[in-house]
Every structure is written in C-alpha cells, then in structure tokens.
C-alpha cells in the first residue's frame, strides 16, 4: 500500500521515475476505468502518471532548496486513489540534493580596522559563507589569498560549527602600507566543487600605541563592614605616555567585575578614587575587583589592575533562633532526657562574630544539648510535677562572641499535662462526728472532704464506705455516703442507751487510670438526749400496792425511815437525779434529802401521832426538759412488824363525821322515824 521513490532535484520534465502500476501490482489498462487520481498537499503537481502504461514521470522540475529550504531530508507525499473498488495507495518521493548552489557571502566586501600596534597573533573574526545545498555540497573550507602579514585559521564553536579567523602573523606598519586587500574564498564539497569569493579590506589605523599603566598591578585595601557610603577605599593611578586624547585616562570597573560589587563601590572616572557606594552586604571577607584604565584615543587602549578589598567584619548581626519543632504539652512523668524542642541558632557574621553560645536559666528542669552543627535539643533534666508548676516559660538566650557581643532571646511556653500520680488526701487523719440520739432517718450527719491536686478525671473524687460491721449490723445499714461530695447520712435512728460510739472508714478514690485511693477513720459518737425518766429501784410496789416502811413509835429526830433508790439510763446531766417530797400526810414529821434520797424524821415521835402516814416522793433528772418519776411510801408506826399490813388508801387520820355514808344513814334513820311518827299519829286519830 506504499511505495518510495528517490529523485534528484532539477530532474528534467518527462523523465521517468518508475512504473506505479508495476510497483503496486495494479493492472495498468484499468487505471483509466478506475478513475485514478493523485492527491498532494503541494501547490505544484510535480509528477504525472501515464494512464495506459502506469509510467510515473516528472511533470515539473523540483528545486530542493526552494521546496524544503534548510531541511536535511526533503520528502514529497502523494496519495493515489482508485475506484471500483475504492483503494488508496501512498507514494513518497525523496528529493535528493545536487550541488547546484555556490557558496555566497552576505556582503559584497568586508572592512577590518587593525591598529598598527597589535602584535602578531591578534585575531579577527571573518564572515561565514552560506550554501543552500546540504551535506558535502555545503561549504567545507575557506582559503585566503597569500599575504605576508595575515593568514587564515579555522575555529570551532561550542556547537561544533566552524568559522574562519584572520590571524596577524607579522606586525603592521601603517607608514609602509595603510591598506591590505585580501580575498576570502569559500568552497563546497560537490563534484565538481563550487566556490564563492568576497574581498576583505584591512585598514591599518594610526592609534596610540601605548596603553595606560597602573602604578601597581594589585591594590589592597581594608575597610570596616559598616563603613558608611562615601568612605574612601583606595585611590588608583595609571599613566599613559601618549599625548593629547591618547594620553587621557579614564577609570572604570572591568566588565568581569560582578554587578553587585559595582553597586557596592563606585570609582571616579578621572581621579581613580574608589569609594563605598552603599551597604556592604557581603558574606565573604575578601572582595576582588578589576579596575580598567582606558585612554581617550579613537581606539582606546586599556589595562587592568586588581583591587583586593578586605572587609573587616563588624558584629552587626545578632543570633537568629528558629524553633524547628516543639512538643507541648508534655506529661509530668516524662523521664529525664526527653526531647522537648529542636532549635537552630544562626549568626550571619563570619569568624568569631558568628560563633554563638546558647543557654537557658539554671533554675529550670531543662537543659540545652548541642545536636548537629548550629542545632540544639531542649531536653528535660529533672522530674516534672504539674501540681507544683503547670507550665514553664523558658527563655533561650543566644550570645555571639563578637565585641561587643549581641544577645538574642526567644521564649518558649511548655505546658505540663497531668498524670494520675497523686492519691486523694484528707484534711485530717481522723474525723470525730457527734450525733444526738433519736435523729430522723436520712439526717445529714457530717461531710468528709478530700482533695486531689490532679486535673480532670484524675482529680475527680468518689466517696464510699468500706465494708465493716457494728454490733453485728453492716455499716451500710446504719449510714450512707454521697458518692459525689462525701456527705454522711443516717439510715436509722441511733439510741445512746444501745450504742454509744463506733468507728468506720470512708474511702476516697479518684477516676484516674489506674485509680488511686485513700481512706480515713471516722469516730462516731452518739450524744445523749433526755429520753428516759428516772426508774425507782427502791422501794418497790407489787401489784399496784403502796410500799410500806415500819417506823418505831418512839423513833427519834433524824431517824432514817427509808432511802429512795432510783436510776436513769441517760447520761451526764440527763442522769443527775434529785429527790423531792411532793406530798406528806404530816408535813412536820418527815423530810427528804434532795441528793441522797434519804427520808428522815424531822422530830421525835409522839403518842398522839397517827399510826399511818403516806408520803409521795418525786425523782427528777436534770435534762432539758427534765423528766420525773414518783413513788408513794406508806409509813406505819409500830414497834413490831404486824402480820397484816393495813390499808394505806386513807391518810391515817380519824374519819370525818359527815362523810357520805354517815349522811346516808342519818337520812335513812330520819325517814324511818318520820314514818313511824306519822303511823302513830294515824293510829291515834283512828282511835279517837
């Protein structure tokens, strides 16, 4: 489906290139019937096909240089289209170059001005010739017409291309010959070769043949880094033996001197004074510049001298502290040597002025350790305790070794995170709690409190009772403790007479992981209330009867009749008893000791005294309010104990004359007498 033909450029019209039918295997007589046609993107139809034979011939001569210009490969693409059936074939024509172009120069002649003072070996660039042909048909070499002062040398550029140079091989003398006419010939490599010539006219100029000369080939100067603008660095001087403009010298920096140095320094064109022009922003201590002295001749000659300026460093840069990494917060249980931060310390000054020492305050549990060059590591040097210090303000001080030294400081804030390293702590070792008996259920009794310096969950405390028993009962049946605040509440009413004191332990536990705890002993004291009346122990009565004491009829004054014995289950003042005589059948006969309860006679007994006496004794405690009990004592005046004790319901005095029974009897007797009298009167009346 594709065929390639090669054809030399400028091939004459009608020249056969090949047989397309044969080359593509197509029956030539069918080309017309199949409506063949050639398609190309070229503006000209360079080829024809014979419809009957299939012969491919040149229709138009091809100029390779016009068609492809400077391309190394020149190709023409055609497409052959056939119908019935539709077929497409590609044809490619490679146009071969022939040596049909001679080398030519851009200008008709070239002029070169050469000063007479130039020494042999001076070089001058000559123009290149152009040949539109390619390969060996292009320019291959140059020749120069013979001359005793000049010869031709070929030079190679960096890309491999060659160019001719005119080399002075013998010194010129304008007075002997002012103009030299040379012919430069360029030849290609075709067969036969073609060439092109161009005249080269060399004019010898009569110029100053003495270049300015410096007094010194090397000038040295020393200035401070912070020298202000306008400071004189050095004054250079060059002389030129020529006269007039050829001897006038102008100074400038050579083009080889870097642009930044030319901005830092300036040179006076006439005096040669080199001064500071701006800020000496350099990082190297020695600056090298080339100063050029050029005369004012038509073709000025120049010479150069080297200027070496030594910059004396001034400590004008402070250290720069850069924090490259920082770990904050850090746990308070971090081990000594833990790296907290990495920082770099730089100083732009060279030498001693750029050497830096770095330190932090001594009273901190941190230290700086040198790491890589100009790097430091901030590490822990001691144990940390967040409860004592929760954050550190670390001031890093960097000082260079300049004179005077410059100091830079940078502050780091390092926060300490909490670790559960503190158990709860109670304010006291023990707590004493006093509670009155008969308290209501759920009554608030006391609040224990513990503190934990840790933070968050590590410092949140929960309270609970430790398992214990009191009098056979579980502690939890008596008391309850608030989990949140340690408040102790009663779950029962306490009775001093049954339980006077006990102790238990409250545990405080934080919510850290692992949890820490502490316990405290609480001594619980139940205080008494006056809730018990005195109990009469003696004398006692049985079945509701009155206790009876026998007193001799002839007892003397202050005779001990009996002693009232009582007890109170309460305590202290509630159990302090006093005895009082509430009632006595004869107030002149008996007296009662208020503290001992002894019942004694006030006087000696008389024969006229009643045989039976009754006294009522009140026993009262000192509570608030006080409680009391009473006892009734019957006293029988007898020398011996009777077999049967009398009834002490009355007071022992003679019964009153007009008591209820006597009045009843009197009324009854009066009624009977009246009836009898009426009956007698009735009989009397009847009888009469």
UniProtKB/TrEMBL annotation:
Residues spanning the membrane: 663-686
KW 4Fe-4S (keyword) present: no
UniProt KW keywords: Calcium, Cell adhesion, Cell membrane, Glycoprotein, Membrane, Repeat, Signal, Transmembrane, Transmembrane helix
InterPro entries (alphabetical): Cadherin-like_dom, Cadherin-like_sf, Cadherin_CS, Cadherin_N, Protocadherin/Cadherin-CA
Highest rank taxon of the organism: Eukaryota
Topology class, membrane: Single-pass type I membrane protein
Record keyword Transmembrane helix present: yes
Subcellular locations according to the entry: Cell membrane
UniProt signal peptide: none
An individual GO BP term: homophilic cell adhesion via plasma membrane adhesion molecules
Domain Cadherin: 6-105, 106-214, 215-321, 322-426, 427-536, 561-648
Main location: membrane
Record GO terms (molecular function): calcium ion binding
Function per UniProt: Potential calcium-dependent cell-adhesion protein. May be involved in the establishment and maintenance of specific neuronal connections in the brain.
Name assigned to this protein: PCDC1 protein
SUPFAM superfamilies with a match to the protein in the record: Cadherin-like
Gene: Pcdhac1
GO cellular component, one term: plasma membrane
Entry-linked Pfam families: Cadherin (PF00028), Cadherin_2 (PF08266)
């Amino acid at each position: 489906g594709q065929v390639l033909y090669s054809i030399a450029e400028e091939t004459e019209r009608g020249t056969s290139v090949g047989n397309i039918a044969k080359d593509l295997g197509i029956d030539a007589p069918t080309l017309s019937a199949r409506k063949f046609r050639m398609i190309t993107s070229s503006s000209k139809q360079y080829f024809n096909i014979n419809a009957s034979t299939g012969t491919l011939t040149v229709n138009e001569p091809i100029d390779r240089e016009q068609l492809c210009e400077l391309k190394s490969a020149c190709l023409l693409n055609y497409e052959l289209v056939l119908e019935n059936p539709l077929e497409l074939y590609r044809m490619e024509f490679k146009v071969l170059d022939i040596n049909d172009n001679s080398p030519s120069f851009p200008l008709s002649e070239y002029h070169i001005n050469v000063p007479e003072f130039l020494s042999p070996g001076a070089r001058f660039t000559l123009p290149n010739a152009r040949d539109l042909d390619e390969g060996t048909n292009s320019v291959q070499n140059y020749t120069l017409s013979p001359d005793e002062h000049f010869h031709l040398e070929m030079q190679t550029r960096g890309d491999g291309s060659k160019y001719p140079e005119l080399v002075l091989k013998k010194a010129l003398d304008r007075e002997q010959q002012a103009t030299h006419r040379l012919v430069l010939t360029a030849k290609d490599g075709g067969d036969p070769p073609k060439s092109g010539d161009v005249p080269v006219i060399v004019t010898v100029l009569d110029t100053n043949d003495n270049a300015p000369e410096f007094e010194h080939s090397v000038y040295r100067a020393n200035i401070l880094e912070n020298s202000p603008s306008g400071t004189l660095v050095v004054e250079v001087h060059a002389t030129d033996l020529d006269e007039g403009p050829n001897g006038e010298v102008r100074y400038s920096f050579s083009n080889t001197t870097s642009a930044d140095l030319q901005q830092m320094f300036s040179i006076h064109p006439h005096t040669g004074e080199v001064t500071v022009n701006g800020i000496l922003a350099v990082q190297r201590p020695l600056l090298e510049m080339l100063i050029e002295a050029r005369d004012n001749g038509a073709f000025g000659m120049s010479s150069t001298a080297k200027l070496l300026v030594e910059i004396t460093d001034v400590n004008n840069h402070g250290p720069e502290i850069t924090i490259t990494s920082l770990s904050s917060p850090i746990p308070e249980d971090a081990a000594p040597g833990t790296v907290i931060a990495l920082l770099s310390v730089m100083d732009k000054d060279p030498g001693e002025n750029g050497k830096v020492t770095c330190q932090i305050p001594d009273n901190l549990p941190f230290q700086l350790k040198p790491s890589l060059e100009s790097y430091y590591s901030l590490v822990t040097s001691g144990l940390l305790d967040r409860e004592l210090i929760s954050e550190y303000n670390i001031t890093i001080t960097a000082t260079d070794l300049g004179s005077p030294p410059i100091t830079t400081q940078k502050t780091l804030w390092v926060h300490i995170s909490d670790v559960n390293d503190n158990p709860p702590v109670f304010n006291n070792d023990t707590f004493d709690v006093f509670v009155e008996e008969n308290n209501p259920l759920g009554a608030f009794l006391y609040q224990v409190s513990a503190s934990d310096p840790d933070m968050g969950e590590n410092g949140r405390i929960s309270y609970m009772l430790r398992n214990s028993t009191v009098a056979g009962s579980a502690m939890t049946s008596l008391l309850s403790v608030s989990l949140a605040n340690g408040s102790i509440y009663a779950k029962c009413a306490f009775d001093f007479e049954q339980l006077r004191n006990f102790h238990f332990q409250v545990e405080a536990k934080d919510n850290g992981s692992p949890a820490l705890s502490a316990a405290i002993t609480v001594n619980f004291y139940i205080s008494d209330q006056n809730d018990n009346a005195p109990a009469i122990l003696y004398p006692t009565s049985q079945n509701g009867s009155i206790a009876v004491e026998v007193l001799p009829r002839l007892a003397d004054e202050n005779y001990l009749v009996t002693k009232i014995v009582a007890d109170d289950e309460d305590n202290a003042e509630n159990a302090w008893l006093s005895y009082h005589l509430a009632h006595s059948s004869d107030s002149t006969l008996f007296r009662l000791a208020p503290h001992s309860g002894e019942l004694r006679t006030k006087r000696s007994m008389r024969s006229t005294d009643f045989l039976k006496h009754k006294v009522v004794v009140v026993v009262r405690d000192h509570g608030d309010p006080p409680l009391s009990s009473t006892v009734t004592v019957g006293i029988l005046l007898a020398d011996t104990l009777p077999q049967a004790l009398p009834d002490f319901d009355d007071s022992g005095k003679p019964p009153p004359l007009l008591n209820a029974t006597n009045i009843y009897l009197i009324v009854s007797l009066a009624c009977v007498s009246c009836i009898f009298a009426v009956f007698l009167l009735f009989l009397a009346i009847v009888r009469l």
